[in-house]
Structures are given as C-alpha cells and as structure tokens.
Design goal:
four-stranded antiparallel beta sheet, 44% strand
Length: 110
C-alpha cells in the first residue's frame, strides 16, 4: 500500500482527506468528496490548487485569493473562496469579492 499524505478532515464525513496523484480524496470509500489538482474552476481564475490551499480550505472552509484573472475583462482581482459540499460529497466553490473600500460584495458560484 502506498503512503498518502493526510491534509485534513473531510468536510462531509470527517474522515481523513489524502493527497494522491490526481487530487485530494476522502479516505472513506463511501464518501465522494474530492478536490482535483487539475481543477477547471481554479484554472478559470488563473490559479492552480496547491497542497497548502487545500489544507487551509479543509481547516477553515475559506481561503484568500489574490490576483485572480477575469475571463471577460482580463483584469486582476482579489476574492475570498468559500468551500461548501453537497450531501453527496461534491465540492462547491463560491467567491466573495471585495469592493474598493475593503468590504465584501457580490458572489460567484461553481
């Protein structure tokens, strides 16, 4: 058996989440929670999901993203990414945007 690094607890069932070749998977085979390393949502922001980002998402349910790229305008922006899960374990991401005064506004979901 190959050793896989534990990165946190599954937000659905609290089992260990392990880093494997293609992503971070819940160790409970009945749970479907996974965060893919080649994640289309993060690609659309001009970002790549890293082990440290996954650890923070699993611990806090949110991470701060800087210099994301807008697909429409090409401009950069900062946002807070929130992780939620559906009952079946599917991960969902929501973005909270900052306005120029530093408070949160708007939301974008996957």
């Amino acid at each position: 058996m190959t050793d896989h690094k534990r990165v946190g607890a599954c937000p659905c069932c609290q089992a260990d989440v392990l880093e494997k070749q293609k992503g971070w998977f819940c160790s409970n085979q009945e749970c479907r929670f996974v965060l893919w390393k080649d994640n289309a949502f993060f690609k659309s922001l001009g970002k790549r999901l890293s082990p440290s980002m996954v650890e923070k998402l699993l611990a806090d349910g949110r991470i701060r993203l800087k210099d994301c790229k807008s697909r429409k305008s090409g401009r950069s922006y900062n946002a807070t990414l929130l992780l939620t899960t559906e009952k079946n374990g599917r991960a969902n991401f929501n973005l909270e945007f900052e306005n120029s005064r530093g408070s949160m506004k708007g939301e974008r979901s996957r």
